[in-house]
Amino acid sequence: MQRNDLHKYDLPDVPGVYLFLQKKGGEAKTSAADVRPTNLRGRYRVLYVGKATSLRDRVRSYFDDDIIATRGPRIVDMVTKADRIAHEATPTVLEALVREAALIKKYHPSANVDGKDDKTFLYAVITEEEIPRVLVIRGKDIDFKKRVINAQQGSTLLQGRTLLRAIYGPFPSGVQLREGLRLIRRIFPFFDTEKPIGTKSKHQEAKIEFNAQIKQYPRIFSVKEYGRTIRRVMLFLGGRGKELRAALEKEMRQAAKEERFEDATEARRELFALDHIQDVSLIKDESLFDGREKSGGARIEAYDTAHLSGTNAIGVMTVVEAGAPVKSAYRTFRIQGIQKNDDIASLKEVLSRRLGHPEWQLPQAIVVDGGKVQKKAAESVLGAAGVSIPVVAVVKDERHRPREIIGARQSGITEADAVLANAEAHRFSLSRHRRSRSRSMPATLRVNKSPPS
Questions:
Q1: Where are the domains of the chain?
Q2: How do 311-321 and 161-171 pair as beta strands?
Q3: In whole angstroms, what is the distance from residue 420 CA to residue 175 CA?
Q4: What number is the average pLDDT over the span 408-419?
Q5: Per-residue pLDDT for 159 more than 90?
Q6: What residues have CB less than 8 Å from 57, skipping those under 6 apart?
Q7: pLDDT tens across 346-389, in order?
């Protein structure tokens, strides 16, 4: 396909899923409007399935000049082979996430799954129990033919074999799957405990009580009512949002007719919530968690600082390689030359001291916490040292969640890896800072606590 082919598809600026297709030989020619994810009928080979916050912008990005650097050869080859695009709009980004997983499961697109081990993917499962749980399980722990979880020795799941009522996935991004379930649970509260409900455990009882108070678990329920909630979760995770809405609308009308006004109000609340999910955190940018090939084995360093009113200031370096934290390479720096709460100066000091260790392997990219100011500060230190490493900045919102990623595409790393590296740096800096504060307290003021993880 070429960029000038896109005008045929009238892609909207809304969330949804898109499919790159290749027409099978001998098939009659069809118009772009006739090709939809639900009516392929064997006429097309599905090469790739993706999701988007904006179908128009996301699909256009596959025809950017730097696609080989940002997506890798597998995706470039896929775009070259494709001769059709199908798309399906969804009301929310969350529904695009579950719809993408359903279509990947249905079509097994080569660019999504070839060269990847199914056992590494994550799945959402619902247990076959009187009070079902919704869990996130890695493929290697599922016997798909017998539909059971094979608990491993020492597993936090119930020892033995847990029967499954339903399996959803694979989900390309475990981070997004967990965030998606968190959003779903706000509408349809469900249990996700490590062991079955009713297992004797004070820790589990305390967790259930706490989560019930914050409306993450059902507070008071009957098995019948909870079963209805689970059926709604199943419809949603199966990518059947339209059916779910139709069922809720029918229930709302029936309850109103029978003057069960509380039930009618609850169904209306659920309908409203489905259409107004605040799910922008799922896909912050069109290139975030898109399932593309990562630049193999990319090493990324991330930096963060922590202090309390200018005291006990420390800086940390964390390392992510091939999409996984390398904790043995983490380093801590006690800030020495900064007198005030100067985060920029602290960042410069830490980065300068890190560059004083030529024996440490240099990364492909560096990630800093902040915006353009922090990015430029890091670049100035690298430039002064004669080191050419791209810098990526992770901008946070008021709840300290990633809002914007600056420079990931130019650096040749995925935004997913940038977010992971930044999150690790923030977690590690807080952990080290707590430890530093504890050690600096007078002995009479210290509290006997376990060291932070």
A1: 3-113, 121-239, 299-440
A2: unpaired
A3: 9
A4: 82
A5: no
A6: 13, 286
A7: 999 999 999 988 778 889 899 999 999 999 999 999 988 878 89
User: Which residue has 């079963």 as its token pair?
Assistant: 227
CATH for 299-440?
A: 3.30.420.340
Q: What pTM value is reported for the model?
A: 0.58
Name the pLDDT band for 294 (thresholds 50, 70, 90): very low
CATH 3.40.50.620 applies to domain 3-113: no
* Widest Cα–Cα separation across the chain: 84
Q: What percent of the chain has pLDDT over 90?
A: 28
Alpha carbon 267 to chain centroid, angstroms: 28
Angle at 324 between CA 321 and CA 330, to 5 degrees: 70
Contact predicate 264/256, CB 8 Å: yes
Which two three-digit tokens encode residue 294?
A: 């990562």
Q: What is the mean pLDDT of residues 285-306?
A: 63
The alpha-helical segments, DSSP class H, found in 329-414 are 343-355, 372-384, 408-411
Per-residue model confidence (pLDDT) at position 214: 56
Q: CA distances (Å), 355 to each of 248, 350, 368, 382, 429, in order?
A: 59, 9, 15, 8, 19
Q: How far apart are CA 450 and CA 443, in angstroms?
A: 16
Encoding tokens for residue 182?
């968190």
304, two tokens? 């963060």
Burial of 352 (0-12, 13-18, 19+ CB in 10 A): middle
Secondary structure (DSSP) of 198-236 = T---HHHHHHHHHHHHTTSS-SS--HHHHHHHHHHHHHH
Predicted local distance difference test score (pLDDT) of residue 206: 64
Angle, CA of 338, 421 and 172, to the nearest 5°: 165
The beta-carbon contacts of 392-395 under 8 Å, at least 24 apart in sequence, are 392/365, 392/366, 392/367, 392/368, 392/418, 393/367, 393/368, 393/369, 394/367, 394/368, 394/369, 394/370, 394/418, 394/419, 394/422, 395/370, 395/371
Closest CA to 230 of 336, 371, 135, 88: 135
Q: Which helix (H) or strand (E) holds 93?
A: helix 93-107
Locus of tokens 């989900």: 171
Tokens of 276: 């107004």
Tokens of 227: 């079963």
- Read off the DSSP letter of residue 152: P
For residue 430, how far is the Cα from the chain centroid? 22
Q: Nearest CA to 315 among 296, 337, 286, 293?
A: 337
Average pLDDT, the chain: 80
CA angle at residue 168 from 164 to 169, to 5 degrees? 135
